[in-house]
Amino acid sequence: MEHKMGKDTCINIIFDSRHTPQDYGRLLGEFIEQGITHYKFWDAVVLKDSVVDSIAASHKMIVQDAKDRGLKECCIMEQDAAFTSPNAWKFFLENKPKYYDLYLWGSLTVPLSNNIVCGFQLYFISEKFYDTFLAVPKNNHIDTAMNDIKGDYHYCYPFPCLQRPGFSVNNNAIVNYTAGCGITEKDIYRG
Predict the structure, then answer these.
(1) Total domains present in the chain
(2) Cα 31 from Cα 20, distance rounded (Å)
């Protein structure tokens, strides 16, 4: 379902209602708080043989749509993303560079000086990177595959978004990736 009001950036949310359907209402509440009025929920691609390929296919579906529509950039969010402050979206947009391949919320692998992509909770992809992104082979985690490609990656710092603890389809378990990855309070944007 797409909701459109105004001319702001559209956030494309990958949504899988099988495990945490309450994320829909939580995200709508966060969008109201952030002033986000243009978003589209996409049903996650579910392939019976591979969770890794399902996740990649879900991201690629949105990037392919952006390419097909001739969009200059595309913003994608996973349903387990959570903003860190009432003005985190504004902060994220204000810090977006003019030129990039990927502009990401941050990384689950800190420090950022390592330039390691890990976590696609919230990111922009530029049209010049669509084909490269879409060419990532099967059986690759779509986010960490970016590290082998070595594109022009930029990270928002401090992080305006984190992955909320909860069920991970990738691990088939309740997880808290943020707690164990070394992100500290100083790394989190609080407004």
Answers:
(1) 1
(2) 18
